[in-house]
Design goal:
Order of helices and strands: HEHEHEHEHEH
Distance between the termini: 25 Å
Strand order of the largest sheet: 2-1-3
Radius of gyration: 16 Å
Number of domains: 2
Shape: globular
Helix content: 25-40%
Largest sheet: 3 strands, parallel
Structural class: alpha/beta
Number of helices: 6
Strand content: 5-15%
Length: 164
């Protein structure tokens, strides 16, 4: 879905290194992802350097600030600081994209729930990080969280309809 949502632009996805162990999928995944190895702080730092390399080459990077799949039925899980810290350090803008129907296409009950259908992507307004410093990470994270949460509710994301 992410690759389809961005056209005519080079992108990478920040993803878990352990996903490369999945037969066939892992090989393809490795070619399009900036892998993060979460085994140690040193390995995580190496992943961040690799990610920043791509940003400096004007290649956009998808970072999912929740860190994992949201299985709560709430609009969003809490965000980690990493994506916002990197955006501030590199002075790159943040352009949130909402994927509204992914849960309907493949839910957490089973891999066999994969099915065809609509997969809406909504681009939210870009937020500049120009002039922000690391002390602004929390405020930036909260701003983007609110923007995304409001968007998921407004555009009727599939997994939260039942709780509202």
């Amino acid at each position: 879905m992410m690759m389809k949502a961005i056209r005519r632009q080079h992108i990478r996805i920040l993803g878990k290194a352990e996903m490369t162990k999945i037969p066939v999928f892992g090989y393809i995944y490795k070619k399009g992802a900036v892998l993060v190895n979460r085994e140690s702080a040193k390995k995580r730092a190496e992943s961040v350097k690799h990610l920043i390399f791509f940003l400096h080459k004007k290649i956009s990077v998808f970072i999912c600030p929740e860190g994992t799949f949201n299985m709560t039925r709430k609009p969003l899980k809490n965000f980690y600081d990493g994506a916002f810290r990197i955006a501030i350090e590199t002075q790159k803008p943040i352009r949130p994209i909402l994927f509204l129907d992914t849960y309907s296409r493949l839910n957490y009950d089973s891999i066999f729930s994969l099915n065809p259908g609509k997969c809406r992507a909504v681009y939210l307004s870009e937020t500049s990080t120009e002039g922000l410093v690391l002390n602004d990470v929390t405020a930036l994270r909260e701003k983007i969280y609110r923007q995304m949460e409001e968007g998921l509710i407004r555009y009727n994301a599939a997994w939260i309809k039942e709780i509202l």
